[in-house]
Amino acid sequence: MTADWRRLDPRTLRVTLVTMLGVAVVAGVPTTVGLLGTGLPLLVIVPVGAVLLVLGGVGIDWLRWRHTRYRVTDSRVEVRHDFVVHTVKSIPRERVRSVDIDAGPVHRLFGVVKVRIGTGQQDKAGEVITFDPLDRALAERLRGDLLRRTTTEPATAVPGELARLDWAWLRYAPLSVSTPILGAAAFGAVMQVAEWFGVQADVVRAVGGFFASLSVVELVAVLVVIGLVVGVVGSLGLFVEMWWNYRLTRESGALVMRRGLVTTRSLTLEERRVRGLEFVEPLGARLAGAARLDAVATGLRVKDEKGHSVPRSLAPAMPKAKAQALAASILGESPPPTEAAGLTAHPVAARRRRLVWAVSGALAPVAVLALLGVLLTDVLLVIAGVVAVIAVPLAVALGMDAYRNLGHGLRGEYLVARSGAVRRRTVALRRSGVIGWRVVSSPFQRRVGLLNLVAVTSANSGAYEIPDVDAAGLAFADDAVPGVLGQFLDYGPGEAAATDK
């Protein structure tokens, strides 16, 4: 790479122009419809505002492009802004840990990408440099050059492809919680658009007339079925958009994941920052025998610049056997530590706590309906009884499942913890990545001799919890990471082993 100061790609102005035109159209159409009938003077505001919006956006981005320079030398990556406030960001090349490349639809239209260079320091100020945009070919060369100079290939790691999209995995997409959410969102979108055009009441009357022959219960059932069908179609489309052309490869000591149809994404994760994996089984996928893998790594973003959660998945939901095989390939451990067989079960008191939580959550709406039934109408009392008959057994089943899923243990260099019912999660955390322990016990836990162990790490959100263990859990924590917690324990030599039994 050249050591000369260079401008960002000039196509940034075209990207901004098309983006702002899209914003103007999306905002202008409903505004125009809402102002129909108010007279010409108010309608003129819409095109004038759209022109000002587009020109203002392009002008601001021209200033950003005109006064931004970057360079990559043998020792540093630097970017500077020289307009009004002069700023310079600089990262030593030996500290570069990730070079991620994203391209939305407009970026792809013009053959440019957004490049984000980070140091793995949880996105602290000054630790991330963004080039938006760069030519795609230039961005790929930049990533390869930076990673080759900053990573060392592990002796046991074999470069090459670790996973590729199998379209058979598409069958797991509708089993996500997003399916009913997308269905409900579709109904909301129809009503919102109808309101923009002032025909919401007409839409409601048309739907009511079409289903006039149905009873209220039948109408609700039909709408639920329609919502689920729409949600299934939406979840399939979302899967295709997110995981199109998915590939996970090992390159120059880094894991590189590429995916995306409309918006392409590329995640680079230096392997020496990997502290483990999460084997995630949402309830729907678990019932179908599927799971996905999430990365546990230092400096991996939990939130983006706008505060939104950043997905950490290294693979979509796939058959469990394939997910375990992929985990073994990534971690270089066979069998993979994410396998849950042989984990230590948690005390019986933990089962009581989960049953109490589950049944209490189920009875809360029943109590509200019953109270309203006493005050208003007996119909609500009947509904409360029906809800109780359905919800309480389901809550008991979920509570028992949550208890059965509790477990912890050691797998060589990894600490393994499993928990959850609706979303079962098995985390395999490298023991050398645990920098401390937190021991938490509420008054209710202390009454039954339980506590929560929290493994503190610099990876991801910074903490992984092992809930509701007894005193033997303290010995387990001391055994998992010797010399951290043991100095605060009261037992003498040899007692830890006895307690652990």
Automatic annotation (TrEMBL):
Entries under Pfam families matching the protein: bPH_2
Transmembrane parts of this sequence: 12-36, 42-63, 172-194, 214-240, 355-376, 382-403
Signal sequence extent: none
Alphabetized InterPro entries for the sequence: UCP026631, YdbS-like_PH
Entry keywords, A to Z: Membrane, Transmembrane, Transmembrane helix
Domain YdbS-like PH per the UniProt entry, residue ranges: 65-143, 403-471
Name assigned to this protein: YdbS-like PH domain-containing protein
